[in-house]
Specification:
- The chain is built from 5 helices and 8 strands; from the N terminus they run H-H-E-E-H-E-H-E-E-H-E-E-E.
- The protein has helices at 2-30, 37-134, 165-174, 185-192, 230-237, and strands spanning 148-150, 153-163, 178-179, 202-209, 214-217, 242-246, 249-253, 259-266.
- By secondary structure, it is an alpha+beta fold.
- The protein is 55% helix and 17% strand.
- A hairpin with a 2-residue loop joins strand 6 (242-246) and strand 7 (249-253).
- Among the domains are: 111-141; 148-268, Mannose-Binding Protein A, Chain A (Roll).
- Strands 1, 2, 3, 4, 5, 6, 7 and 8 form an 8-stranded mixed beta sheet that branches.
- The protein starts with a helix and ends in a 10-residue tail after the last strand.
- Residues 150-264 form the C-type lectin domain.
- This is Macrophage antigen H.
Length: 276
Amino acid sequence: MSEEVTYATLTFQDYAGARNNRHGNNLRKKGHPAPSPIWRHAALGLLTLCLMLLIGLVTLGMMFLQISNDINSDSEKLSQLQKTIHQRQDNLSQQLGNSNNLSMEEEFLKSQISSLLKRQEQMAVKLCQELIIHTSDHRCNPCPKMWQWYQNSCYYFTTNEEKTWTNSRKDCIDKNSTLVKIDSLEEKDFLTSQPLLMFSFFWLGLSWDSSGRSWFWEDGSVPSPSLFSTKELDQINGSKGCAYFQKGNIYISRCSAEIFWICEKTAAPVKIEDLD
């Protein structure tokens, strides 16, 4: 009984194996390879990778579209901003142009006013000079009493005492003035026309500066050669001391000599309200 069971079992197993062998042979004969678990996993991995790549491409495409839309939107905003800036620049240029025109008009008006004031001042001076001819102590006179008015200066001729050049200079300082300085040939002619200067000697504000080894006026300026004749220049260049004026000429003397002197100071402005 035991042998029969064993035989039946062996016979079944051999039959099953033979059947499987026949089935495999039949598949190979028909051209179908036997499926392999490794290839199935590889195919599944490739499919997954393709899906991921596809998803990535779709995502990149969507991002590209979004960025493109953002760029277009920013470009439109930038274009609008540039238009606004250009408009404001045009407005500013127009305002500056108007401002420049106003500045030019303002400068023109200031120039006209300045010219009118200067002309008014000149007319006031001429009128005051005419008034002084008839009334020497007229209140429009820009110089103190006992002072002589010429152009923009007042002159004081001292004839009641004689002093050295240094003391004469001090007296002029006490009178808020300086020893006279000749600035032009016209001023020289004015001094020459004064009767007192025809026969007397008067100190000028010109002296030799030993430290600077040159001639200087009281204000520190150097005398202009055009104010002197050749004879006067020869005397000045060959002498050292202090200058005095007599009969329309300039001479040099020792500063310790005692003679008359002339003080000079700036005349006050002529006031229009003092012309009546």
